[in-house]
Amino acid sequence: MKLTRLACLSLCLICGTTLAQPMTFNAAWQQLLTVSDKLQAESQEVIRAQAEQQAGEDLGMPSLDISGSYTHLEKPIELDLRDLNPLASLDPSSLPPALGGALASIPSSLFVTPFTEQDIFRASLQAMWPIYTGGKITAAQGIHEAQVAEKEQQLQLVTRDLFNLLVDRYYAVSVTEMLMQTQGQLVASLTEHVDHALKLEEQGQIAKVERLNAQVALENARVSAGSAKRQHEMAVIALSRMLHQQSVTTASELFMLSSQPSLPRLSQLTMTQHPALRLLEAKEEQASGLIEVEKGRYKPTVFLYGNYTLYEDDSLFSKVEPDWMVGLGVKVPLLSRDGRSGKVEAAKSALLQARYTKAQTQQDLSLLLDQSYRQLQQAQEEVVALNTSLSLAEENLRLREIAFNQGLSTSIDRVDAELKLSAVKTQQLGAKYRYVQSYARLMAISGQLDDFIGRTNGLNNFGDK
């Protein structure tokens, strides 16, 4: 017989352990949003894309750099006046002796003018500001924005997948617990029946084979009860690990709705809001931006530039060179080896791929929505149909019990009635579980997670909203 919660609490106090506080589905969902490593990983992907987007906003801003250099020349740059006209073209022999002698007496070092040292040190401040890039910067910024949207939608997809997984694991705890109760009731009932059969056998009212049949059924029921107990333990472990808790018990029970959601409305919400479709739209935007980037390679680039000398050596060349300069530059691509035309075609192909994938995804989502909706209807019909079977099984067991006690029925009939009742309870429990799973998938596909959570908060048992 199943221990009551008060009895469990007393037992835990005696043993020195604590009883896990029941957790509603909403509380479990909020816990999962906080502790899920997978969600945290996807969130970091969004943050990384946002950071790259912010970095892309600076592409159109001017750049400012400090540049320094040290250069060692083979020899200093010098100018010998004797290498320049008219001295270079003079023939000393053609000059008057007095003038030729005077030129010859001048030291050669006086004709040499040094422009630089052999070791040159320079430091300057350089600026560059692109003012027209053929649309490449704007397209690159659009790609970064679309990448953020892609990562955000990927996060939403992961969130919905985790939601469905949580529904499966959370309500698996409730289902396996009720299954364990059903098997426990079966064991208790068959134990009582075996005790009764032993007494009837001792009085000679039933044959030994009937008592053995009841005992075999009891042993099988105990095996099934042990299996149900282990399934419940594994369900609790799976949910606890998912929520990063030591042990979790559930508070929100299985439920059913009085009226089914509107399929056309679900379809409309899915086709306009599903993250998979928005993700592919973001990929389309990225492909379109990539086309613009590649086309921009055919266009000229116009930029402003400037340079200011911060430090230079004390040489004639440094004195001649201006301290600062500004200008307007243009770069026109004529021939390149980066395969611009091929990259444009590749970008167009990526755009078409995204569009075709989106069309296929729309078909897949529509099919998944229809399947989940019909599975919801099927599960509801099974629950309703099994209500009658449950009443029949309970009545059949009651009559078989009376007939067996009066010697009008065999133990086999009594045990069969007990097993049929247990089987019907198990079947109905499975149908209710599939109903909640199908409803959760519908809400996840259409993006109505809050609607599902609201129903779990407003319902504590099987019934209407």
From TrEMBL:
Molecular-function GO terms, alphabetical: efflux transmembrane transporter activity; porin activity
Leader peptide range in chain numbering: 1-20
One Pfam family per UniProt: OEP
Compartment(s) of residence: Cell outer membrane
Predominant cellular place of this UniProt entry's protein: membrane
Ranges in a coiled coil: 362-396
Transcription among keywords: no
UniProt keywords, alphabetically: Cell outer membrane, Coiled coil, Membrane, Signal, Transmembrane, Transmembrane beta strand, Transport
GO cellular component, one term: cell outer membrane
InterPro entries in the cross-refs: OMP_efflux, TolC-like
Family: Belongs to the outer membrane factor (OMF) (TC 1.B.17) family.
Protein name (record): Outer membrane efflux protein
